[in-house]
Amino acid sequence: MILFPNCKINLGLHILRKREDGFHDLETVFYPLPLEDALEVLTTTEMIFSQSGIEIPGDATENLCVKAYQLLKADHPQLPPVHMHLHKHIPTGAGLGGGSSDGAFTLKLLNEKYNLNIPAQKLEQYAAVLGSDCPFFIRNTACFASGRGEIMEPLQLDLSGYSFLLVHPGIHVNTGWAFSRLTPGPPAIPLREIDWQDVLSWKDRLTNDFEDVVLAAYPAIGAIKRKMYDTGAVYAAMSGSGSAVVAIYPKNSIPVLQWEEGYRAFEVP
Questions:
Q1: pTM over cut 0.90
Q2: Does 133 qualify as catalytic in the annotation?
Q3: Listed residue (174, 13, 15, 26) closest to 92, CA to CA
Q4: Number of domains in the chain
Q5: Could you report the per-residue pLDDT of 119-154, keeping only the tens digit for each?
Q6: Of 95, 108, 215, 247, which is most buried with the most CB atoms under 10 A?
């Protein structure tokens, strides 16, 4: 059985306060886009994880796909050994949630393939153990997120009338480092005050708190954002803690642009 874990983008991201448990309370809007990895699971006689495509740093045992399997296996011992193969296409360390999506989709795939009959709400609880934005990929529809990112409310937002350009400059931004440079606090414009149906108003109102910190350290990311606006984007921002920058263009109006060597650009027309 094969599924295709997709990425997400953040539309606005505000870090409100640091909690006693070490996490941060935040507010953001998650929106799914069809930039995808591929995840296949086969029943076998021993647990195997293999990977192709973009190289994933770190030990395979720390991969969220493996951790998702172990999480379900602990509560569902009838789960057989599997061979999981992940083909990685979504850039890592980019703020696009690729690893989180892989973990969440592993939960969904194992639940469906082996008839575990785990309801969606329980899958979200499992996903929250894997990571703060993993529960989003269980729902995988536009939502307003708060808490660590695991508290979600549906948001009526359809951007199919626009085209998206995602550019990853090959810079890996460490999320812990980015958080350590921030001063949490109330936003100038809370996300609940944004008119989500008026995309043209977002440029001056919809902000990502990480941008000041990350763009100061990595000017190339700011240059990508400026280039997008200079070429007709109606909105552009870094996604999550970076380093990918996402631009929204009028439908079928993404220009042909030249990027520096090592950059990767993805279009969602």
A1: yes
A2: yes
A3: 174
A4: 2
A5: 999 999 999 999 999 999 999 999 999 999 999 999
A6: 95
